[in-house]
Amino acid sequence: MQQQAIQSPAHPLPFLAGGTTQIAYPLDVGLKKIAVGRTKGYELIEEGELETYTVGSRRYVTHAALERFIANRIAAERETRLAGGAQ
After folding, report:
1. Count of alpha carbons within 13 angstroms of residue 9, beta-carbon side
2. What is the C-alpha separation between 31 and 62, in angstroms, rounded?
3. pLDDT for res 61
4. Residue 16's closest CA among 65, 60, 49, 56?
């Protein structure tokens, strides 16, 4: 019996999908992927907008956390535009 290949849906954020996706990145690499500098990156972490984890003294960010961050930013901007237009 031959199994059918399951096709995954199109990537929700295609600009982050670059073929093979790593699960996690060192923080500096992850911040580069979302075009955020180190200072702003640490502000986002402190504010709870970007989730990270540490192993020893190294801090990492998951690919999923980067996607959530961008999706949340897009949603917040959309809400702001809609609220501004309703006034």
Report:
1. 2
2. 11
3. 97
4. 65
- Is 44:36 a contact under the CB 8 Å cutoff? yes
Distance CA 67, CA 34 (A): 9
Helices (DSSP H) in 1-87: which residue ranges?
A: 27-33, 38-46, 63-85
d(CA 26, CA 33): 11
- Half-sphere exposure of residue 36, counting CA atoms within 13 Å on the CB side? 19
pTM of the model: 0.71
pLDDT tens per residue, range 40-61: 999 999 999 999 999 999 999 9
